[in-house]
Write a structure and sequence with these properties.
mainly alpha; 70% helix; elongated; two-stranded antiparallel ribbon; disordered N terminus
C-alpha cells in the first residue's frame, strides 16, 4: 500500500507480512510516532539524571569512582592553583547544577554551556593524564580512558538538545 498524506496509520505495514507481525509493526510504528517530538526532552532528562547522580556522589567522600581521577585532572589543568580540597566540591556543585538544569529546563542554555565547558575539561584529561588514560598512546584506552571516552555519547545527546533549544 503506497503512503499518502491521508492514510490513518503513518507507516502502514506491508500486506505480505503475517498478520501478527503486521500488528506488532503497526503498534511499534504508532509508538515511534508518539515519541517523535519528545526525543529532545527524553535525552535532556536522561543526561540530566546521570549528571545529577554523579554530581551528588562527589559530595560524599569515596562514593564516586572517578573522584581521584577528577581531582588529579583538575589539579594538572589548573597547574596546582586549585587544591584537591576545593576541586572536588566545585565539581560536585557544577555537575549537580548541570543535572538540575537539564532535568528541569530552568536556565537550560546556561546548563548546556556549563556542560560543554565541563566536557572540554573531561576530554582534556585524556591529554594531561595521558599516562593513566592510555595503554598505547591514543590507541588503546585504559579503564580510566574508557570512562572518559564514553562521554562522547553525552556530548552527542546534548548537541541534539542544544540544536533543538537554539531552533526554538
Amino acid at each position: 500500500m503506497p503512503r499518502t498524506a491521508r492514510t490513518t496509520a503513518p507507516f502502514p505495514a506491508p500486506a505480505h507480512l503475517p498478520r501478527r507481525r503486521r500488528t506488532v509493526k503497526l503498534w511499534l510504528t504508532h509508538r515511534a510516532q508518539r515519541y517523535r517530538g519528545a526525543e529532545s526532552l527524553v535525552l535532556r532528562v536522561a543526561v540530566g539524571i546521570a549528571y545529577l547522580w554523579f554530581g551528588v556522589l562527589k559530595f560524599f567522600p569515596a562514593a564516586s569512582a572517578a573522584e581521584d581521577l577528577a581531582v588529579r585532572a583538575m589539579t594538572r589543568m589548573t597547574l596546582g592553583l586549585v587544591p584537591a580540597a576545593v576541586s572536588l566540591p566545585t565539581l560536585a556543585v557544577l555537575e549537580t547544577a548541570i543535572g538540575l538544569g537539564l532535568i528541569t529546563g530552568f536556565l537550560l542554555r546556561s546548563a548546556l554551556a556549563a556542560f560543554f565547558v565541563h566536557m572540554a575539561g573531561v576530554f582534556l584529561s585524556l591529554l594531561v593524564l595521558a599516562h593513566e588514560m592510555w595503554h598505547v598512546y591514543a590507541i588503546v584506552p585504559s579503564l580510566e580512558g574508557q570512562y572518559v571516552l564514553k562521554n562522547i555519547v553525552l556530548v552527542a545527546a546534548c548537541l541534539h538538545v542544544t540544536a533543538r533549544e537554539l531552533a526554538d
